[in-house]
Specification:
Low-confidence stretches: none
Helix content: 40-55%
Distance between the termini: 71 Å
Structural class: alpha/beta
Strand order of the largest sheet: 1-9-8-5-2-3-4
Order of helices and strands: HHHHEHEHEHEHHEHEEHHEHEH
Shape: globular
Radius of gyration: 23 Å
Number of helices: 14
Length: about 325
Amino acid sequence: MAAKIDIQKLVQISKMYYEQGLTQEKISKELGISRSAISMMLTDARKMNIVDIRIIDPYINDEELSSRFKELFGLEDCFIVPTNITKSRLLLKIVTSRAAAFAAEKMRSDSTVGIAWGLTCYEFIQQFPADTGLHDINVVPLIGGSALVSAEFQVNETVRLFAEKLFGSPLFIYAPGMVEFVEDKKNFLESLYMKNIIEKWANLDFAILGIGSPPEYYGVDNVNISAGAMLKKIERDPDKPIGDFTARWFNIRGEVLDCEHNDKLLAVSEADLRKVPHVMGVACGTKKVFSIFGALNSGILSSLVIDELCARGILDLIDSGALADYMRTDR
């Protein structure tokens, strides 16, 4: 008689191995089952489709979704990474890997490239290949330094790492990304060490931007604001900040806000960004749906790299008519 299959046990072991990341040896000790039995049960789980393993290739593009984005927002290029992964750090690695590959193809030697701060740009640098054949590229920070100690906000280090991979020259910035008082900004901008930075900002060939979430998403108590709740916030105040480029806030229509926060920034200007031949936006995660929509509305982006769930979230809101009043046609 064939042994009875314990489905519940197969599910438990599969979760421990694939979701919790425990080794077969660890599972064996915890459950008091031999390691060889654990291995056989994992094989059984796959055969019975309890476990469905998918290989996520970030280089595959969802052409149908990408075409819609290009048509709706006038993009030159759009890459939608086909994945249902929701774990934020893993998703970011997958999306930035695709963005890095595209940038490596698009950038040219003997040029000037600007990059912003933040986790997306930092991870982009980690994923960027070191054997592209590119050389003599000036790498410029698009915003001043941050008081935050985490690596992704150390913009000069990000610039140094990027220049190293590009066999180029880093240009460091010795000024804060945001001044304490608006009056201080003029002094920084007129300083000698900012002169070269400002000249490079006005003559960029390529720019890499992360797209920041709405400001309230950074509050611990508000990270799970629903799409419906956010729509109500936007309806009450269409000029509320919905996202940012280089910490510069914009609204749902993609308009850069005239506000004290933006006035205090030491970062590349909107006007200079609009002159860049190619601006690539990179983002992922459904909490950035409204931010990405606003960024696309701005008309600043030439290309976009996002994940499938995020892309479908944006298109669902557009197709439902929820964003009809905010869709700009004058980009």
